[in-house]
Amino acid sequence: MIVESNVPLQPYNSFGIVARAHHLARITGEADVQALRDDAEWRDASRFVLGGGSNIVLTGDVKQLVLKVEIKGLRLVEETPRAWIVEAGAGENWHEVVRWTVENGFPGLENLALIPGTVGGAPVQNIGAYGVELQDRFESLDAIDINTGRTFTLDAARCAFGYRDSVFKHVPAGPNDFGLAGRALITRVRFRLPRPWKPVLGYVDLEKKMAEAANIEPTAMQIFDWIVAIRRAKLPDWRVLGNAGSFFKNPTVTPEQCADIIARDPKIVHYPMDDGSIKLAAGWLIDACGWKGKSVGNAGVYERQALVLVNRGGNADPVTGGEVMTLAKAIQTSVYERFGIRLEPEPVVV
Ligand code: EPU
Predict the structure, then answer these.
(1) Element (H, E) at 321
(2) pTM to 2 decimals?
(3) 204, 230, 265, 319: which has the highest count of C-beta atoms within 10 A?
(4) What is the tens place of the pLDDT at every residue in 118-142?
(5) What atom in ligand 1 is closest to the CA of residue 205?
(6) Nearest protein Cα to ligand 1, atom 2
(7) Which residues line ligand 1 (CB under 6 A)?
């Protein structure tokens, strides 16, 4: 098992932040994790699992042994009258997997097109966009405990999916708590794509595309193309302008809190949820505080979507994790002072 030293992490995080891994091992299968456990030099080293790096803020060099997940593989494992089950290696590029499923006649992931990152990160974050969340298309996943080497399979219930949340983001609170943060390396994910396929079209942006095309019955490929176009118009390409997608979660409030805010700010964008709570558009809150287009050092608020923080220095003079966090804290403070709402960051701060 080769462990590399002093590895630049700038190419491996979508913000383009400069940092190094003191030590990094490329994991191409379970055997690599086992080999590290059998190696006296690395057996007791604390470990950090790195996927596509599209949802992290690096605030310094990583002293832990970085396990960079590069597990490949993509196949249809089962076809029943009610679903296609597709399995992908955790190191596969998410968008390419979505494209492959749609092109090969296994539709269902098209609303999740163009989300940066890898397959292994998708369940951690329970990625979601345009009316579909990963949990809606999830069958099961395989993982390995990075401390014990034990392999295990989890169904959706054990993954405890929530809004941009799962068991993989939770540190165990006690002996009976199943939090897996810092413990699990996801190796393979299986998707359940229901048959017959039904398009998910409820979102305003998609409705607009439908109206423009006068297309009553779009195919999955058509929706895939629309989602790609919608995202390209709204969100910066991290290869051109470094970023980690939405920087904050959309907060939920009680109907009373929402009524209170509406009384002061009638234009606030809000959506009722099934459980009776109200979700507020964090992008709108940040925008209303005047942050759109502003910068702190090389950390900026994207001009077209205030929920996205960007690296204004590019590769030549890249933003630091400290600058990103300083900007994030300033935004949190002003949103709290104006609306009494605490915004919660979405990315993992390392
Ligand atoms: N808005 C503003 N000003 C802004 C940004 C947004 O007024 O600067 C308003 C918009 O006009 C709109 C509302 O806020 O009325 C919501 O904006 P948008 O439709 O762009 O969606 P979002 O809530 O900002 C969420 C997800 C995205 C996902 C989209 C589409 C979160 C944190 N973000 O964004 O996910 O692509 O919906 O489903 O839930 C991500 O997680 O990284 C991500 C990009």
Answers:
(1) helix 321-339
(2) 0.95
(3) 319
(4) 999 999 999 999 999 999 999 999 9
(5) 19
(6) 284
(7) 129-130, 234, 245-246, 249-250, 269, 281, 283-284, 287, 292, 305-307, 346
